[in-house]
Amino acid sequence: MFLWWGEEMIQFYNDAYRPSLGEDGKHPGALGQKGKDCWPEIWHIIYPLILQVQTTGEPTWSEDQLVPIYRNGRLEDVYWTFGYSAVYGEAGEVAGVLVVCHETTETVLGRKRLEKSAANLHSMILQAPVAMCILTGPQHVIEVANQRMVELWGRAVTDVIGKPVFNALPDARGQGLEEAMDKVYRSGQTFEASEMPVSLIRNGIAHVVYQNFVYQPYRDNDGNILGIIAITTDISEQVLAKKQLERINEQLNIVNDNFRNIILQAPVAMGLFLGENMVIEVINDSFLKLWDRDRSVVGKPVIEALPELEGQPYLQIMRDVLRSGETYYADQAKVLLARHGRLEEGYYDFINQAFRNNEGQIIGVVVVAHEVTGQVLASKELQTALNQARLSKEAAALGLFDMDLQKGTRIWDPRCRELFGISHQGDVTYERDFVGGLHPDDKERITRIINNCFIKSVSGGVYDVEYRTIGRENGGERWVRAKGQVYFDEADRPVRFIGSVLDITEQKNDELRKNDFIAMVSHELKTPLTTLNAVIQLLSGKVSEPFVTERLKTADKQVKKMTKLISGFLNLSRLEAGKIVLEKERFNIVELIQTVIDEQRMIISGHEVVFDEPQPLFVSADKEKIASVISNFMSNAVKYSPSQSQISVGCDNAGDFVKVTVTDKGNGIKPGDIKRLFERFYRVDDKAHAHIGGFGIGLYLSAEIIDRHNGTIGVDSEIGKGSSFYFTLPLARDYYTPSKVDNR
Ligand code: ADP
Fold first, then answer.
1. Pairing relation of β-strands 399-404 and 409-412?
2. Model's pTM, two decimal places?
3. What are the domain boundaries of the chain?
4. Whose alpha carbon is nearest atom 24 of ligand 1?
5. Which CATH number is associated with domain 110-234?
6. Is residue 663 within 8 Å of 724, Cβ to Cβ?
7. Which of 459, 523, 613, 731 has the greatest number of C-beta atoms within 10 Å?
């Protein structure tokens, strides 16, 4: 307490007042001092108040009033809450003024600091780059919220400031936010949440907003919780993007599990391409093989894997499917692919189909491809062959036949029908029209040759035969020459058989006359030769004179040679007349070879013949004719290789066949001649052979004989090294093991 008394305003104060005067201040001088002398620095503030009390007797009250006083060695800003009241003298006059005061400097400065920091906080919040607000009190009244926050809420600032947050945003209720805020307000513990979905109504439409939250306690200087500072980040976009990614991944996992396996195991080229860039997601080996690429292309956009597609329409086609969802079918599409070290033109059937995710959105394209280059080229070739055939047909009155083994159709043109002597216009049949139209002597041979034509490995599809037709309806017998080609697919299956038939009756008649002549001359020669042979044999037994014996041996050799020659002509004429009949028997071919070698040794001198005899091998064949083939091979080897050189004979078991080989060390045969050696009367035009006798019928007869036994005949030859003539024959059926099936 402090008192001013009397006119002079003499001062009295108690001990409780003393601290207000500070250290080293007005105390003790102020005690009993005149007011005006004690407080010159503030007299202008306090005197009017004192005067007011003195004149009116009314008390005054001032709160947190700045009244700087001199203390602690300086003039200090001091805040006071104080009241002046009148103290009356005996006469009832105002004799003094009582001061009741306490200093509020600390409180005032504290409050000022708080106000300043609040103002700072507000401005910080308003400028923050994230959504922020301060909610005060237990009702979470929105004290301040920045633009981002009100945007997030979808409200106007004026609608929310000063309102409890859940009144301003009733749609935010019931999502766990009240509880979180209450807890922060009560406990002072920070609350954090990430990717929390909050449903809010913005402009009348319910939105789910994904938010990261931080609720922090908002405290005063003394640490008392005033409210909550809320910081919110709208991460809806990121969350949605993430969710979408997760969904795609999920779908891709489904792809992994099911579709991937389907693709990888597909028996055709198949792949899955994703997105606008057609990234290779899954692809099977067949597809990679078709492209001639390896697994490193997986995960790359198609154009990176196949840069050569640039400028070709196929990538665009895939993109169109991705956009439209419409399946695209390509039929024999021409595609250029860099394969096998060059840019290759290929033909493909393919299907591009949209690949959808579980929601039905198209996310990629499934491609199934099948290469048909072989077929396309074959059909082109075929077309050319057909055109050529038509052309030559017109030129030479050729009959034309065209058999489609896939469609099962057989087309014969009018000339072809004429040559077979049939007049009907309907479909021709194999049995009735073709086989039925063949001369009985040619039936077996021609049907066998045709069967072989359909086996690529046996004939290469080449068909070139002469036969007689009987003229089924008009009885007009003709000789025809038929030439054709069987076309095969990639699996070597016959698909088409096209050819022509030419009437050679006239030529043929010529041939017949020639054959008849040869047959007659040969026959006439045979009789004197047989007699001559008998005479030589007879004399050989009787004569011991060495000179004569030697001459007789020579004569014997020459007679044997001549006999062979003549029997060759006879066989030829018989063959030409279709009179060769096989007389099959089961025999050991190893034994037969040995016999032929022994016979040959009698007429050859100078050559060394070696035969590495194998185990017995049984065939069912015409023994005499097979012997003539072997002896023809041997006598050729002798004729066409230098004297003293070696001739080796081989006999091997080759699967279901036996292979007999005669190898010489002669000059060899040129590839161009090899093809023709087995033709009738063909002889290699070679000066070295000019002096060697022969007519070019031995190999022709041999080929015909082997052909009739369902065997093959051929030669391997190297110029300057020698030749190796061989033939194969089927082993006797009982000879092979039971597990093997004769499928010929
Ligand atoms: P030829 O009576 O003329 O010998 P072939 O039909 O037996 O009749 O043989 C046809 C042609 O094949 C022969 O003229 C010869 O040019 C050739 N030839 C056959 N065998 C051999 C061989 N071992 N070495 C070289 N050329 C051969």
1. antiparallel
2. 0.40
3. 2-103, 110-234, 266-371, 376-503, 511-576, 584-739
4. 640
5. 3.30.450.20
6. yes
7. 731
